[in-house]
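Researcher: I'm preparing a figure for a lab meeting and need a structural model of a single chain. I don't have an experimental structure, so a prediction will have to do for now. The sequence is pasted below. Please return the structure as tokens so I can convert it later.
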Amino acid sequence: MGAGDEETQRHRIREIILTAASELIAEGGAAAMTTRAVAMRAGVQAPTIYRLFEDKQGLVRAVAAHVLETYARSKDVADDDDDPVVALGAAWRAHIDFGLANSGLYLLMNDGTHATRQAEHDTPSGVPDVLTTRVRAIASAGILMVPEERAVDLIRAAGDGVIRALLAARADAERMSVLSEDMLNSVLAQIVHSRGETPSRPVDALLIQLRAVTDELTGLSTAEQALLREWVGRSIDRRASSAGSAAPSDAL
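Model: Understood. Here is the structure written out token by token.
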């Protein structure tokens, strides 16, 4: 067997194992995905799993990537929508749908441990990457009111809360849709200002936009772009700290 044939065989076995692990999680939740059960379902020996994925957490990360990528391909997440806020809404709905349709895997990926959190961030083409891209587009449009990282964290936290609440309540489709849309609109109200509307802190909005479009400043070298991004980031952080420390006295 040549090197190409070996690589093809390796890829085929890897896909069989990932499919088996995904099915076990879907059927019985995280507890059902033991190395032994996966090996039996896939028709391989346990050492094969360790050879391909190193350990169970490596398998979890690979399963997350596999399922998220497959799911993302099956959904229209408005990649080319001209309105970045509309595109973010599509990404939000895809994320909520994924969590509800793949509850076992979602809860395993978001159980609070470093290893399973890493599973989400290691995913090359899943919804989390789509979310970061959508927030960057909003920032580039000059309508993001908070730093990109904070916006992503807020959206992720809100989405996680919605998914967990709906899974716990076993809500019907109408209730799921209403709760999801209400939460999305609440988050958007906190992080986005309407086009044509003067932001409450226009300098902050301008700095956030400048950092988002730094890579598009082709007149600058890569090093100059990185330096500009660092300077703007520092300004954003300092202004946020200043605003936070001033808030209590402003409220008096």
